[in-house]
């Protein structure tokens, strides 16, 4: 009964509410939540049907210009699910949560990350931008606090004083980044989604996510570029 399958149940609603409160959820957590929601509301559960379950929710979110999207963590290649607002560009959506100069700092941080070779920007470089903001200059201490909030809100990730875009940010802002950074942003040659942390072929310039590089070269005796077949000179992670 196809009509019944596409109906929203309380299990779907509960799943959506929990995801909304988290903003983003790792794949294994989403699978556990799927099972729990079906059990609580006594709805048919199949462990391999999470994506079908989500597409039912998405068909009901469509008129609201919202969607649950699946993306990948650039660090370890794990699947994540995030609730995305399609009605506004993501920077406008952030505008309701941050002041103008905080947003300007975020944009400048994003510029540094996307134009970097490895998809990271150092805290020193970011903090040096704080007193060059056009909207209103920021003291370093203040900028450090704002960066902390961006990490807590899952727009940025930080590791040993280096910042990159959080998985949530990449899932939500993929279209924005691809259209606003056309000359710099690249898609991964393997999974075809936006690649921020990536390795680049020295010969032809294609990029690949680190987890995709790992997976792709695992089966090869000699690492060669999938595009131009030249030797892959980067260290395989």
Automatic annotation (TrEMBL):
Pfam families: SMC_Nse1, zf-RING-like. Residues 188-229 form the RING-type domain. InterPro entries: Nse1, Nse1_RING_C4HC3-type, WH-like_DNA-bd_sf, Znf_RING, Znf_RING/FYVE/PHD. Its EC number is 2.3.2.27. GO terms for biological process: double-strand break repair via homologous recombination. Keywords: Chromosome, DNA damage, DNA recombination, DNA repair, Metal-binding, Nucleus, Telomere, Transferase, Ubl conjugation pathway, Zinc, Zinc-finger. It is found in: Chromosome, Telomere; Nucleus. It catalyses: S-ubiquitinyl-[E2 ubiquitin-conjugating enzyme]-L-cysteine + [acceptor protein]-L-lysine = [E2 ubiquitin-conjugating enzyme]-L-cysteine + N(6)-ubiquitinyl-[acceptor protein]-L-lysine. One of its GO terms (molecular function) is zinc ion binding. GO terms for cellular component: chromosome, telomeric region; nucleus; Smc5-Smc6 complex. It comes from the Eukaryota. Component of the Smc5-Smc6 complex. RING-type zinc finger-containing E3 ubiquitin ligase that assembles with melanoma antigen protein (MAGE) to catalyze the direct transfer of ubiquitin from E2 ubiquitin-conjugating enzyme to a specific substrate. Involved in maintenance of genome integrity, DNA damage response and DNA repair. Belongs to the NSE1 family. This is Non-structural maintenance of chromosomes element 1 homolog.
